[in-house]
Specification:
- By secondary structure, the protein is an alpha/beta fold.
- The chain has one domain: Rossmann fold (3-Layer(aba) Sandwich), CATH 3.40.50.
- The chain has helices at residues 17-28, 40-50, 62-76, 99-126, 148-168, 195-200, 204-216, and strands at residues 8-12, 32-37, 53-56, 81-84, 130-135, 173-180, 225-228.
- Helix 4 links the parallel strand 4 (81-84) and strand 5 (130-135).
- Helix 3 (62-76) runs parallel beside helix 4 and helix 4 (99-126) packs parallel to helix 5.
- InterPro entries: NAD(P)-bd_dom_sf (IPR036291), SDR_fam (IPR002347).
- Pfam families: adh_short (PF00106).
- It comes from Hymenobacter daecheongensis DSM 21074.
Length: 235
């Protein structure tokens, strides 16, 4: 495993599921973790396990996003890794979606990624290095029934990250995107651990290992995209 000692990593959506698994794994590798989520109680528990900093925040709020970066810099003096993992989703026929549901998915999945990247970029550019990793979805590359709003938000998030990759490469900043398939988490009000999910879903730890893989790439190598499929668990 890569030694991340003295590296500072911000992980959003860190209170449970994929974000929690990422925070715990990066902490095991020596990183100092800034845990971000809306749920303060669960976030505190993860921060204690990682010996990190808990920053309750709504990533879709510009002031909150800037607060996350400010707190990380105040506490640790630098940021090396930003994992944009916070996400929400609901699924229905297009005609049954409300405007509020549509807006919420775009606010968290797209605007949240945009705001955090925008807030951290001056710091990463100034230090001539850093790594932004977006946790998107395999539905950023395909469509399916009942997935118009969630899929559209993930297509948009993917566009933000792939464009940013081109804009910051000359500053020594990497941008990578991971596209998980189905993951056994609390996402969309699911309860992890069902027998069916055991057979068909990835585990949060699988996605954390994908983040580790991306971070282990040599300095001169950029892993632009990493697709992880259920069942085979092949990258």
């Amino acid at each position: 495993m890569t030694d991340l000692t003295d590296k500072v990593a911000i992980v959003t959506g860190a209170s449970r599921g994929i974000g929690r698994a990422i925070a715990l794994l990066l902490a095991m590798q020596g990183a100092k973790i800034v845990c971000v989520a809306r749920s303060a109680d669960e976030l505190t528990e993860v921060a204690l396990k990682t010996a990190g900093l808990a920053v309750p925040a709504d990533v879709s709020d510009e002031a909150d996003a800037q607060h996350v970066i400010n707190e990380a810099l105040r506490q640790f003096g630098r940021v090396d890794i930003l994992v944009c993992n916070a996400g929400v989703g609901s699924f229905n026929l297009l005609e049954h979606f409300s405007a509020a549901e549509w807006d919420q998915m775009f606010a968290v999945n797209v605007k949240g990624t945009f705001l955090l990247c925008k807030a951290i970029l001056p710091h990463l550019k100034a230090q001539h290095g850093g790594h932004i990793i977006g946790i998107a979805s395999d539905v950023a590359r395909r469509t399916f029934q009942h997935g118009a709003a969630y899929g559209a938000s993930k297509y948009a998030q993917d566009a933000v990250l792939s464009t940013l990759r081109k804009e910051v490469r000359s500053f020594g900043v990497k941008v990578s995107t991971i596209y998980p398939g189905l993951v056994d988490t609390y996402f969309n009000d699911s309860k992890p651990g069902s027998p069916d999910a055991e057979k068909t879903h990835l585990k949060p730890a699988d996605i954390a290992q994908a983040v580790r893989y991306v971070l282990e790439a040599p300095a001169h190598v950029v892993v632009d995209e990493l697709m992880i499929h259920p069942l085979t668990q092949e990258w």
